[in-house]
Specification:
The complex is a heterodimer of chains A (313) and B (292). Chain A is mainly α and 313 residues long. Chain A has 2 domains: 2-57, no CATH class; 82-312, MetI-like (MetI-like fold), CATH 1.10.3720.10. Helices cover 74% and strands 3% of the residues of chain A. A two-stranded antiparallel sheet of chain A has the order 1-2. In chain A, a hairpin with a 2-residue loop joins strand 1 and strand 2. Residues 1-10 of chain A have low confidence and may be disordered. By secondary structure, chain B is mostly helical. Chain B has 2 domains: 13-73, no CATH class; 80-291, Orthogonal Bundle (MetI-like fold). Chain B has helices at 17-47, 52-55, 69-78, 81-113, 118-128, 137-145, 159-166, 169-180, 184-192, 197-208, 210-226, 229-234, 243-253, 256-291. The longest helix of chain B has 36 residues, at 256-291. Chains A and B meet through helix 2, helix 3, helix 6, helix 7 and helix 8 of A and helix 1, helix 4, helix 5, helix 6 and helix 7 of B.
């Protein structure tokens, strides 16, 4: 807290010129700024100030939630050398990889073909989208019940009936991340499909006709007409998918709590552990800054693609 | 049958018999795929009617044999779901009001009034989308424990949940992209007629914005319904809990048949909402999804 005040007064003295400038601009459009004020205040309290405080805290030692003395990079060093951190980072990348496999390619295939189906069109689109409406925690609990590792579990029973070996499902450290991502994909695929289908409505059907007359088969048409049309959106969706996979939290916390033995722990869960299990706000802040930096790299790439694809349209 | 089909697979393709069969097979395949999405929730709902005996029976039944809808009523009363629904509704209404009045208003200013400096605010808002909520966890929690300026402890109140709804960058993008589509001429004309800055929003813009308001309410609904992270941090008293907190507790403390009934209460309302408002939800989603 003390540091904050010090920083504030320091910058106030320095920026008194800027302050009067700000007051001038606000006075000129006072009605507009008055209407902006509630939102700006909400962002100050729940977003901007906390982000700045987190960055500052990561360089200080804390006792409880109170900021103590400056320790430089000590928090970062102790966090990075913690063996859980490495496991967690590896896990986070594993989540990203599986999200990419389950969440990026199937929606494209489903959207391209689903767009061609005319029979029960409304039902099919609604059915694919429907899981999106169910809250993540309820879906996590539903799948956890189905993934019951005992012989009486629903999926184990189905496997048994089909003559396969039963599985440990979520208790198997080698499979747990794939399964969590799979249930997330089950829920999320529909929304991506619907976005792609909306995008496909913009394909000029004359192009297909021309390609057909030129003797191009269906797969050739997909390659030369459909995919080029979708490519901008595909890039955007893929990067969004990667960014979101770094934020995964709800599903693992409600399905496994990070287990078995940290096999499904994510960076976001590690932050919470540091903050509210070990009460080390400083280390939580350091992990947070590292995660934000990691995401920042992907976000920059995302915006670059987003801009160029919008220019393309 | 397929005479007027255009698009990727067109009537030209469907003239030959093998192609016709392949196309029908594709349709059947998609009907089967749709079952993957429909069956698990359906199985959950059906299973909640089973009695305890059938639950522990080996092997378990996939299609329930016993049918006990009265069990749902018992669970509803035992876990006090009326209270949970009411709490969730209160959180929803408060969040919706804050979102429309904070984010809607801000997006309007950024999109149409464009005072000097609002662009900077907009980019600062967009930048927050990239940072996961957990990063600033402790700092936000501190602000809730000791609210800036007012110095009030907001733990065990709904206020932080409402106000946090006001700091929603995604919602601002949704509103802004809608307001960007309203022609400036309309606003100029109203200005000439002597409509002031505040009247403009309430009398001219809001009546035009029904569709985006409905979209934002639907988005907020599914958000609030599934939210458990901040409620768990803030609502320590069971009296104040929302649906998801109760569902999360079910998992660890209640027998499986009660877990199922609880799940049904969490799953069915959004599905019913979806069945009635399907078109609106899907359209709203694509609108916000592409731009966001």
């Amino acid at each position: 807290m003390k540091q904050e005040i010090a920083v504030n007064t320091n910058s106030k003295i320095k920026s008194s010129g800027i302050c009067s400038k700000i007051i001038k601009t606000v006075k000129k459009d006072w009605a507009g700024w008055l209407m902006l004020a509630p939102c700006v205040l909400a962002f100050l309290i729940f977003s901007w100030q906390p982000i700045v405080t987190t960055i500052i805290t990561s360089f200080y030692e804390t006792t409880g939630f109170e900021v103590g003395k400056f320790v430089g990079l000590d928090n970062y060093i102790s966090v990075v050398t913690d063996s859980h951190f490495i496991t967690t980072v590896v896990n986070t990348f594993e989540y990203a990889l599986w999200s990419f496999i389950f969440g990026c390619i199937p929606p494209i295939i489903i959207a391209v073909f689903l767009n061609e189906i005319t029979f029960m069109k409304g039902y099919l689109r609604a059915a694919v989208y429907m899981p999106n409406m169910i809250p993540g925690v309820a879906i996590a609990l539903m799948w956890t019940i189905m993934f019951d590792p005992s012989e009486g579990g629903l999926l184990n029973m189905l496997l048994g009936a089909l003559g396969f070996e039963t599985s440990m499902w979520l208790n198997d450290p080698d499979k747990v991340i794939e399964l969590i991502v799979l249930t997330m994909a089950w829920r999320g695929i529909g929304s991506t499909v619907i976005i792609y289908i909306a995008n496909l409505q913009g394909v000029n059907h004359d192009l297909y006709e021309a390609a057909t007359l030129d003797g191009a088969g269906i797969f050739k048409r997909i390659r030369h007409v459909t995919l080029p049309h979708m490519s901008g959106l595909i890039k955007v969706m893929m990067l969004l998918n990667i960014i979101n996979s770094f934020k995964i939290y709800d599903e693992p916390i409600s399905m496994t709590g990070g287990g078995p033995s940290y096999a499904s722990q994510t960076l976001t869960m590690l932050i919470q552990d540091y903050a509210f299990t070990y009460f080390r706000a400083d280390k939580a802040a350091a992990v947070g800054v590292l995660l934000a930096l990691l995401l920042g790299v992907f976000s920059i790439v995302y915006f670059k693609y987003n801009m160029s694809s919008e220019e393309g349209e | 049958m397929f005479k007027n089909k255009t698009g990727l697979i067109n009537s030209q393709d469907l003239k030959t018999k093998p192609m016709k069969i392949a196309y029908i097979a594709l349709t059947v395949l998609f009907l089967l795929i749709s079952l993957i999405f429909v069956l698990p929730p359906l199985w959950t709902v059906l299973s909640s009617f089973k009695d305890v005996k059938e639950f522990i029976q080996m092997p378990p039944t996939i299609i329930p044999r016993s049918f006990h809808p009265e069990k749902l009523i018992t669970v509803w009363n035992d876990l006090n779901f009326s209270k949970l629904y009411l709490n969730t509704l209160v959180i929803l209404v408060g969040t919706v009001v804050v979102k429309i009045s904070f984010c809607g208003l801000a997006a309007y200013v950024i999109s149409k009034m464009k005072p000097k400096g609002s662009k900077v605010i907009f980019w600062m808002i967009i930048a927050t989308m990239m940072i996961p909520g957990q990063v600033k966890l402790v700092a936000v929690y501190k602000n809730i424990l000791d609210f800036p300026l007012l110095h009030i402890n907001m733990i065990n109140t709904y206020w932080p949940l409402f106000l946090m709804g006001g700091a929603d960058a995604f919602m601002i993008v949704v509103y802004k992209s809608f307001f960007d589509g309203i022609p400036d001429l309309l606003i100029e004309a109203a200005k000439i007629d002597g409509v002031g800055s505040f009247g403009m929003f309430s009398k001219i813009i809001l009546p035009l914005s029904k569709s985006v308001i409905i979209t934002s309410i639907l988005l907020t609904m599914s958000g609030v319904w599934g939210d458990f992270f901040w409620p768990r941090m803030i609502l320590k008293e069971k009296e104040l809990w929302n649906i998801m907190l109760a569902i999360l507790e079910l998992k660890d403390t209640y027998p499986i048949d009660i877990q199922f009934s609880g799940l049904v209460f969490a799953i069915v309302p959004p599905i019913i909402l979806f069945l009635f408002l399907q078109k609106h939800i899907m359209q709203g989603f694509t609108m916000s999804g592409i731009k966001g």
